[in-house]
Amino acid sequence: MTLSTLTHKLLWPKSPQACLRTGLWEPGRTGMATLFTGKILIRNNSDGDEVDTEQELSLRLDNRVLLLYFGAGECPQCQTFAPILKDFFVKLTDEFYVNRASQIALVYISQDQTKEQQDSFLRDMPRKWLFLPFQDELKRASLFPSLLCSSQD
Predict the structure, then answer these.
(1) Membrane-crossing residues (predicted)?
(2) Residue 31 falls in which region: left (phi positive, over 0), alpha (psi -120 to 50) or beta
């Protein structure tokens, strides 16, 4: 099975009007970091460090292909999909596998029922992933696993 066959949907609003309707884009702002303006993003490391500033957020997300992964550790489809996504991400971002690591960023948006389930899922995922706090209101999606892909181009 490939990444594309497991993805239930691969779409993202391309126009500013569509992004305005989602509430994830503000007029006059550019870059992928604007999707998370005013939100907290957390590094998937043992300390759960927050991305500190808008400048750091911009460095991590702008001028990259941004993947938003809506999933849940207890979901059977997610359990099948997550290892493939993890392998795909690692092979594009780890210089052990490629001469020049891809400019890709991934934000996990938990659909887990509890914070403990979210934490358990993230333990096995790449440290380069970012995620929203468990209680964030952006976290609910109707279908998962879902992978939304966006770039500034």
Answers:
(1) none
(2) left
Q: What single-letter amino acid sits at 1?
A: M
Concatenate the DSSP letters of all residues of 67-108 into one string. Answer: EEEEE-TT-HHHHHHHHHHHHHHHHHH-TTT-SS---EEEEE
Q: Per this entry, what is the length of the chain?
A: 153
pLDDT in the model for residue 1: 36
Tokens of 146: 């879902």
Instruction: With cut-offs at 50, 70 and 90, classify the pLDDT of residue 114.
Output: very high
The distance of Cα 57 from the centroid of its chain, to the nearest Å, equals: 13
Q: What is the pLDDT of residue 142?
A: 63
Ordered structural domains, the chain, with CATH: 39-150 (3.40.30.10)
CA distance 74 to 94: 27
The residues that bridge with 13 in the sheet, in sequence order, are none
Rounded to an integer, what distance in angstroms lies between the CA atom of residue 77 and that of residue 81? 6
Give CA–CA dist 97/40, Å, rounded. Answer: 31
Residue the block writes with tokens 């609910």: 140
Residues contacting 15, CB < 8 A, separation 6+: none
- Which residues does 127 contact at the CB level (< 8 Å), separation at least 6? 43, 44, 45
Residue 52 identity (one-letter amino acid): D
Look up residue 87 and give its two tokens: 């392998």
